[in-house]
Amino acid sequence: MDLRQLATALCGDISGSQVLAPGPGHSAEDRSLSVKLDSKAPDGFVVHSFAGDDPITCRDHVRAKLGLSTFKPKKKTNGKTKGASKPWSPVITRYVYRQGDGTPYLQVCRTQAKQFFQNHWNGQMWVTGKPDGAKVPYRLPELRAAPLTAKVHITEGEKDADNLAKLGFVSTTNSGGAGNWADNLNEYFRDRHVYIHEDNDEEGRKRVQRIARALDPIAASVRVIRLPGLPPKGDVSDWLESDPSGARLVKECENTPVWEPTTTPPPEEEREETEPLIELKKKQADILIELASVVELFHDCDDVGYARFDVNGHKENWPIRSKGFKRWLARAFYESTQSAPSSDAMQAAMGVLEARAQFDAPEHEVQVRVAGHGDRIYIDLANQTWRAIEIDEDGWRVIDSPPVYFRRSSGMKPLPEPLAGGSLEDDLKPLLNVKSDDEFVLNVAWLLAALRPTGPYPVLGLAGEQGSAKSMRTNFLRALVDPNSVPLRALPRSEHDLFIAARNSHVLAYDNASDLPDWLSDAFCRLATGGGFSTRQLYTDDDEVLFGSKRPILLNGIDDVATRPDLADRSIVQNPAAISDERRKPETDLWKEFEHRRPRVLGALLTAISHGLRTLPHVKLDRKPRMADFAVWVSACEGALWKNGTFMAAYTANITEAIETVLETDQVATVLRSYIDATSKFEGTASELLKSLNCIVPETQQKAKGWPKRPANLAKTLRRIAAPLRKVGIDITFEREGKQGARNITITHQPVKDGKAPSPPSASSATNDLNDLRLTVGEASPSALPSASRATDKADSAADSRSAHAVSHNPLNGNAADSADGKDGTLRTSTASSRPSSPEPNPAPLLCGHCGLPEDHQPLRQVGDASRRAWLHRRCEVPWLYPATQANKRAP
Fold it and tell me: What residues have CB less than 8 Å from 871, skipping those under 6 apart?
């Protein structure tokens, strides 16, 4: 048949070497079926459908058009054929054949069902199939090392050879089964005394006769060992169960005569072929689950499933969904089946193992780097053998199998094994660029807290100019606790990123952390003292993923890193000094010196922690700061490092400095301190306080970012800064008058508890200098009011009042307008909470000396000194006291 006849039969067109015709079920105009003539094809042609039709359907369509019979596949015979599929069975033993120099050559794998298959070594890994080269005997390096006078035992199987080798015999065998002795193996036994062990079955008897006949011409002697009393199909391993020392075996071998060939050789045994690769009947997911049966499963408090399994003699813990466990399981699957599992099978197996870990396995606490168990602390060295440091009251030591469950995350680097005898003063202090002993003490305190398994943990913030070694100090401190391949990182962009980092690292270290946003400052607070984050699980609607932890935090930046009161209250804030060019060292030299000292520094820290565990129950502080647990812990440890009480003195001074930093950086706190220094007390609403504060700040500051624009914002700010203000003697309280009444704010001066006067607030460019006037408010009788202050005529009382209090005195100028002449003193002010008594039946109303209005919801009180005094509303006190400031605000 040619193309023309084919095109006619198919109602198609010739196109080159093919015919384009309508496909099955298509219209006559269709040309989606391509048919080419091919003499090698079973039908004489090949088909291809451009429309994606089934190839078999297209072939039958063409056969029908050509008048050929329908294709019928041949039926498979029911007889047993070679290479028939066998049920899957896990590999239980692997026997490695090596070349004379010890190089791996062949691997014989034995399954639980006593099935065998072979792999060969390609130079890097085991590959399916037997090697292409000649066969080598089992345990060849040991055979070559044995002297010619040694007796060589040839067994049927690698198991028997290994059992004899354990007793000191020189033993070997061949691969491929009883009938696969290769002629090239004979040369390895030239001039040797050979004992061939016979298994108690027909195949074993045929095997020994064939090997004896092959070795007799070249061996020094050949003996066939037929052990008495073996069970059917028994072998030398069965004999050794009753003869564990092999003494009786030696006698049996010595009493066996030398083998003599018979005149009529037995018929040639049929050689067995190597077993074909096992065709798997079980599903891959079932095989993976069965391989994981040797794994210890458990779950943590968040129901995350974990697997604990043996790797090279040590235990490792990995989340079931982690790459580490998946790789281990994939490797086990390949070693058992010589194939790779599909992704679907792996996912299905992971789901079953997670369910078993959650519902059928116990719960254990899983930690990163530092963990506690009873009264002991364990620190993960994160090395390849998963060793850990154990610390208790008696000291510290490195152990192989800690009783706690650690997990590893990407980026974790190992800690060195610590050395005893180190000194923090000599080994650590020279590397940190600290300007005082207190600064060094607080750095060591942070390290001691970070090596504790439970928080709260302080935030160590380093703020200083460029070249003050902030980053280097941060690197060193982290490397002593939780070294990482990326030790310093940029600030996270979201809380989700922050808590993911906290889940995978024990220490969080951030570089260039100036100008922290409020949400991040709050998140750091939660991490320091305990908090969490929740988010919706991917691809679900209502499942929630929880992240909760406490972590030590390191921050460094040029500006102050802890400016919000809540973060500053949890922080150790330091300002490293700049390093001169003469004192600066190359970074490589510093790291080399640090790595040399790090084991001794770590050992000194561990000794202090052990001391802390011993003395912690007896530590009592007279006064506990906000981070009380941290303070008690470091106070318990410091006895091994320096004099008791050194830490609390340094920590208290640092807290005071941090408070001043917070108050100086907060606009409202700065202005409020100046205002209370001048008025001593405030009582009123947030709206009234905001008006009073706006009277003493320029309009530019009122419009600036950070200055409250509404009373509610001011109240929120006051609550945030109330704690640091209280520590400098300014007390803020909030009260509500009745259920629906206004919320009043009371601000007063309070003496500092330790007897030290609070330091004055720093000058602010936004307050227009209040002339350093400090006013005192007190009680005064109405008779102390000048006669001009009381209007005697109702018609002109308002005018008289304004004249007496607003016009008759010259306003005070600020420091910018006059020089210090020593005449500016402290104005003594007086207050009266009630209207003064008067003998007149209808006295004239008491009017405000500033606005000229009578008292309303704000009572009038007397303010001033001997030279200038007036009755004023609370809202009018600041404008009356500081007219120069108000004039500056009104000026264009």
Answer: 785, 789, 805, 846, 847, 848, 849, 860, 861, 862, 863
**pLDDT value, residue 794:** 35
pLDDT attached to residue 807? 33
pLDDT at 532: 67
**Alpha helix stretches (DSSP H) within 271-392:** 284-291, 323-337, 343-359
Helices 470-481, 587-615: axis angle to 10 degrees equals 50
Q: How far is CA 270 from CA 108, 116, 704, in A?
A: 21, 19, 100
User: Is residue 878 within 8 Å of residue 863, measured between CB atoms?
Assistant: no
Say which residue the tokens 């919706």 belong to.
536
Out of 71-80, 97-106, 249-258, 341-350, which region has the weakest mean confidence (pLDDT)?
A: 71-80
Rg (CA), the chain: 46
CB count within 10 Å of CB 11 equals: 11
d(CA 425, CA 642): 10
User: Is residue 128's pLDDT more than 90?
Assistant: no
Q: Name the residue type at position 219.
A: A
Paired residues of 222 in beta bridges: 194
Q: Label the pairing between strands 13-15 and 861-864.
A: unpaired
* Residues 744, 162: Cα–Cα separation, whole Å: 91
* Three-state DSSP class for residue 121: strand
Q: Cα separations (Å) of 372 from 368, 380, 613, 668, 696?
A: 11, 11, 12, 44, 56
CA separation for the pair 60, 68 (Å, rounded): 9
Nearest to 767, CA basis, from 690, 674, 660, 686: 674
Residue linked to tokens 């000291």: 395
pLDDT band at residue 114 under the 50/70/90 scheme: confident
For 150-209, give the DSSP string. Answer: SEEEE-SSHHHHHHHHHTT-EEE--SS-TT---GGGGGGGTT-EEEEEPPSSHHHHHHHH
3 state DSSP class of 763: coil
- List of E strands, 570-693: 571-574, 681-685
Looking at residue 547, its pLDDT comes to 67
Q: Say what the pLDDT of residue 773 is.
A: 32
Sign of the dihedral defined by the CA atoms of residues 679, 680, 685, 691, in that order: positive
Percent of the chain with pLDDT over 70: 80
Supply the mean pLDDT for the chain. Answer: 80
**What digits encode the pLDDT tens for the residues 838-887?**
555 556 677 888 777 777 767 777 777 666 788 887 777 777 776 655 44
- Of 257, 253, 99, the residue nearest 167 (C-alpha): 253
pLDDT in tens, 775-811: 333 333 333 333 333 333 333 333 333 333 333 333 3
* Residue 744 host element (H or E): strand 743-749
| Other beta carbons less than 10 A from residue 37's beta carbon | 15
Tokens representing 391?
């610390």
